[in-house]
Amino acid sequence: MKRLYPYLKPYLGRMTWGLIIKFTGSIMDLLLPWILSYIIDDVVPLRDVKMVLFWGGMMILCAVAALVTNVVANRMASWVAQHTTESIRHDLFEKISYLSCKQIDEYTIPSLEARLTSDTYNIHNLIGRMQRLGVRAPILLLGGIIVTLLLDWALALVLIALLPLLGILVYFVSKKGVPMYMTLQQKVDAMVRTVRENASGIRVIKALSKGEYEKDRFRQVNSQVVYWEKKAGVTMSLTNPMMNLLLNFGLTAVVAVGAWRVNYGLMQTGAILAFLTYFTIILNAMLSITRMFVMFSRGSASAQRIAQVLDTPQDLMQTHEAPQPSPYRVEFDHVCFSYQKKEDNVQDIHFRLKKGETLGIIGATGSGKSTLTALLMRLYDADSGRIFIDGQPIASIPQGELHQKFGVTFQNDVLFADTIYENIDFGRHLPKEQIRKAAECAQAMEFISELEDGFEHRLTSRGTNLSGGQKQRILIARALAANPEILILDDSSSALDYRTDSLLRRALRENYGETTTVIIAQRVSSLLHADHILVMEEGREIGYGTHEQLLESCETYREISQSQMGGDVQ
Questions:
Q1: Cα separation, 89 vs 7, whole angstroms
Q2: Which of the four pLDDT bands, split at 50, 70 and 90, describes residue 269?
């Protein structure tokens, strides 16, 4: 919870004024029973109507003051909660944006989504409730006890005797409740993950008629959420009936002791009526504190989860090494890497590319092709070996500067619900000429020019209103638009016909001859004219050279080429 203080600090002044206003309203509430007691015991026996009306008017003024101050204070509390949560959500989103891929893998996307949504919502409720109930309830509780002590110390002792029992009850229930809410949020993460998978895979589910199967899968994770929410709710809900039981026992004792004292003339009737009213105020204050502890338990669990992300140390640290003169644009020097740090996903990869050269990478699914490009962009750090760009270790290049060198199309890339122009520009404010040139090179102008609104044609989320080939051409245009030093095309032409693929490769040679290109493909025809071809198998290099060299030296490549291109393998 200490992590919340920096976010609340800018609003301490407003919170202080809210506290003062709330305190004033609570005092007005506490004055009402006392005035009533005074009217019954001291004013009514005088039979002075003017005095009765005067003190009755004072009660009305106190009631109005209590109403107005509470409304104002509650609005101020809501304002603070809103702006504090906004700041937390902004910083959390920014932190997530700069987490390394390794850290995102550890947290998982659904868990991060839940922390940004449900956890920040719990924090919002916690901050708002703490300012409303957290101020008002203790004031009414302590103020009620003080006033009852002044009214009649003997009856007040009956009430005070109950407070340790109530405190013990709240402590033990809260101690059990916080871990349960932590587990509940983890189950919510699993449910979000299931929903996310269903949403992204809805077409496959429908195509394979797996709706019932997915319903069962969702029912299982949903039942876990229900179970833990019920368990936590039942545990925390024990406080209400137990408090009611204890306080009602106390109320019974107050009535009995009060009647005895009135009977012996030790106190007046108005005092006992006021005492019963104060006892009710104290009861409600204790119940409010109970509800506050439920909210605190849930909010503190969420705060821990958010703080866990915000306090995550930077993973990919920048080193300070001077670049060495090198004729190579890209160099992998015996690089090894493992995602789980158990078995290498790529092992002993070594190659060099000069400026303007093209490397083709081919291999079976899971052979480590995409991992190489992730290491080149430093989305992950290699476990051993080194990677250089223009003779400079990539670990010594600032992240922003490093990523500006690349134009990339990932294997499962994303188009956004925006215009074609904005999807290519991607917030980089590139000149229109570059956008058009990139679209022409990517062979996208062929269909863009046929659209009624051209570049202003609006795409749906993930580009579902385009064909697979059209989506890939827009993604390639996005990668080319900023004239990158290094272009990575990860299986980005799989949906293109052979003619369009051939035109794309020719346009790359003619318009981006200075760009070093890495192409990952399953089709030999896409790599046929690459300067170098790397053949991968189970994370290892099993062949490296030109197309002609590999046909002679690498049996796996020769088999792939023969199966795709028949006897004409040259």
A1: 11
A2: low
